Amino acid sequence: MKFLRSILDKADAFNNKLSSYPIMVSLRHGSIYMIPLLLIGSIVHILSALPVASYQRFMEESFGEAWRYFLGSVYDGTMSILSILIIVSGSCSYSAEFAVSDKYANPIGATITSLGCFFILTGLREGSVTSFGACGIFPAVFTMMVSSILFRRLSSVKALRLEFLTHSGNPVLNTAVVLFLPTTLTLAFFGALAAVFKFTFGITDLCENLSVWLSALISAVSHPLAKGIVYGVFLNLLWFLGINGTFVLERAAEMSLSSAGGAASPFFSPAFLNTFVFLGGCGAALCLVLALILSRRNRAQVRLARLSLFPALFNMSEVVVFGVPVILNPFFLIPFLGVPLVTTLISYGAVKLGIVPDAISSVPPVTPVLISGYVAAGSVGGSILQAVNIAAGTLLYIPFVRNTQRNIIKWHQYDIERLLDLYRQCEQRGEGTSFLTRHDTLGSLARTIVGDLERALDTGEIELHYQPIVDRDGRVDSVEVLLRWNHKEYGYLYPPLVIALAEEAGLAGRLGNWIFDEACRNANVLCKVGFPNIPFCINLTEAQLKESDFINGLMTALQKYSLPCSAVELEITERIALTGSRAISQRMSDIISLGFHIVMDDFGAGHSSLMYLKEYNFSKVKLDGSLVREIATNQNCREIVRTIIALGRELGYNVIAEYVESPEQRDTLLSLGCERFQGHLFSPAVPFSGLYDYLVQTDRRIVPTLCLSAIAMSEDDA
To answer: What is the CA radius of gyration of the chain?
Structure first.
């Protein structure tokens, strides 16, 4: 058992290392982009070849030859160009990963260069397109990887850019000139490679050559079980490498039978193996689909499995094989070869026990699982054998699926950290974000988060937490409202990042109105349970202030819950105040005239704080966190804070110290005259029920008689 665990750990470590390479990430993403076309191609093939005589007759009588032509045309535009799809999606994904940081990583140039390399390597003679479909997957994957990396490396060589010719006013033409030599050298490399394969190794058709080699191997094996194992292992190994194992092995089996005079064990026949061993296609793909559904730990994979289930029931495995993906995934190599091996042994035992006969009837490839077993065996024993094999294969796949899902969580966290780092860089530079327009992994992640945010606003997945702001006696003076989102896939997301993405997507107004409504609803509940006059401080963004219906949304929420304007304090950062925008200035003046109290956050972080104290009538200012964190150890910080507090007494605003996390900080701030505090020393941000508990524990008035159950009732009434 330890030996097996050691092998699995090594395979997992190797897979994680391999998966981190940009070219492997691009292959994975490119394969996922292909899913719609693969699903469509699988469905039209099933509809075209479904072995039900009455269905075929009805379609012929209703639509004549047009229905076959229609389905065949769609199939030609999907499955018949599978290799082309791999080239385009993979090359484009790889170049897009670098397009933001490298202006010469041109996705269009890289993609058309990869296509040219593919045609050079596979040969395009007399209009032949046989290598465009499943037979060309391996050359396509190989070409996509090598040409993409080579083209990008050559494009980064300054001496190859011909920049002295790029003085036209047409930027597209300039890019084409810059990429001329990298394209030429990449194509030349593949031309030389094709010549070596043909004239040195004699390889012109990889699948045909493999069929010849494997037919000799199969012919050398005499025992039917051993033949079945060899057949199954190599078929799935070739698919794992991106080679059409079904075509190669069936051709090899035909050659082997021909050389043996046509005599063969029924157990070794491709018909038997396809019916009872390769359930759902290569690697017993139906078992993988069911394992994904049963694991339920990753929503994306469960959705993929549900999409893959229908084709897999008809032995079409492309959707799940490319969607996971299984190709070149070292961790899935073990079950991809092992599950068919186990189903081979079980099927052989069933033949020996007489559950299914030696000779079976030939079954059309798209006959649904369980039905195909019954038809092939001529009895329910065939269906039972299929069910047993499906159950065994699914159980074997589940541990590998769960481990992969754990790895996916790690990859997601890594991508989230990259996106967060990029956001913080923009924040430090005072720049807005432009994540949604990116075409790399981070752009896809940002768009996914925005889509999930829209749904979360409808389903209530987002929540508000509340952090008390206390006076010198420890009683709650006000409460800051903070956004929290525990994403089902990514965990808790950094609130400023969520807000920035909402602003970029045009959701700032909708998100802001939801926050207004939820905060006012809970403020109303506090009033009902005996805690009136505790204002909720809501953070505003620049995008919210620019929304035309901002004030209307805020007033609607207040009126809905019968609250005065004093029930809400509006908090803005110094950066917003410093924008100098006339629209922002007018909106803030309108807010103040309505009776709202304005709080300035991060006071002292910028260069013009004092000037804006003159412009706006702030009721409170919050000290910048950098001042508070060093208040107990830095004399300069203490003097700055002392000055701000003294100025507050003169101008009539209160000072709040955030990030108070130790008694020493609190005592120092008290000695300087600060009387309002916020930080973990008193309470972290908590859900509404936690806020209620904190109020009950710290308030020195008569404890309210209503409890949490009463709060729930009040929330229902609100």
So the answer is: 33
Give the whole-angstrom CA distance, residue 520 versus residue 534.
12
Dist CA 214 CA 601 (whole Å)? 73
- The CB density around residue 467, as the number of other CB atoms within 10 Å, is 21
Strands 597-603 and 620-623: parallel
E-strand ranges in 488-520 read 491-492
What number is the average pLDDT over the span 121-135?
67
* Structure token pair of residue 185: 């050298």
- Helical segments of 529-573, H only: 542-546, 550-560
- Pairwise CA distance, residues 291 & 299, whole Å: 13
Which candidate, 135, 130, 359, places its Cα nearest to that of 250? Answer: 135
What are the φ/ψ torsions at residue 492 (nearest 5 degrees)? -70, 125
Inter-axis angle of helices 35-49 and 22-33, to 10 degrees?
Answer: 40
Alpha helical stretches, state H, 127-240 = 137-155, 171-178, 180-199, 206-220, 224-240
Angle, vertex CA 52, rays to CA 49 and CA 54, nearest 5: 120
Tokens representing 489 are 């896939």
Distance CA 398, CA 391 (A): 11
Q: Contact at 8 Å (CB) between 482 and 495?
A: yes
**Structure-token match 């070849």, residue found:** 49
Residue pointed to by tokens 């019968």: 562
| Residue 267: Cβ within 10 Å count | 22
What's residue 501's pLDDT?
93
Q: Report the C-alpha gap between 254 and 256 in whole angstroms.
A: 5
Distance CA 691, CA 526 (A): 10
Do the beta carbons of residue 296 and residue 290 sit within 8 Å?
no
Distance CA 288, CA 393 (A): 8
Is-contact 489 497, C-beta < 8 A? no
Does the pLDDT value for residue 664 go beyond 90? yes
Q: Containing H/E element for 714?
A: helix 708-717
Please give the C-alpha separations between residue 106 and each of 117, 156, 163, 227, 514, in angstroms, as whole numbers.
Answer: 16, 11, 16, 49, 41
The alpha carbon of 651 is separated from its chain's Cα centroid by a whole number of angstroms, namely 51
Residue showing tokens 């649904």 = 368
Residues 588, 591: Cα–Cα separation, whole Å: 5
Q: Residue 125: pLDDT band by 50, 70, 90 thresholds?
A: low
**Residue 288, CA distances (Å) to 157, 308, 333, 391 in order:** 44, 10, 12, 11
Give the domains, in start order, of the chain with CATH numbers. Answer: 19-201 (no CATH), 207-408 (no CATH), 444-717 (3.20.20.450)
Q: Distance between CA 546 and CA 509 in Å, rounded? A: 9
Give the H/E segment covering residue 568: strand 568-573
Q: Cα(308)–Cα(320) distance, rounded to whole angstroms?
A: 6
Q: What is the pTM of this model?
A: 0.77
pLDDT band at 485 (very low <50, low <70, confident <90, very high): very high
Q: Locate tokens 């991060």: which residue?
A: 602
Would strands 536-539 and 491-492 be described as parallel, antiparallel, or unpaired?
Answer: unpaired
pLDDT in tens, 425-450: 888 877 778 888 887 788 888 999 99
Residue 281, phi-psi category: left (phi > 0), alpha (psi -120 to 50), beta (remainder): left
Q: Mean pLDDT throughout 403-418?
A: 86
- For residue 189 the two structure tokens come to 């490399």
Is residue 623 within a helix (H) or strand (E), and if so which, with residue range?
strand 620-623
- Cα 24 to Cα 13: distance, rounded to the nearest angstrom: 15
CA 601/CA 370 separation, integer angstroms? 66
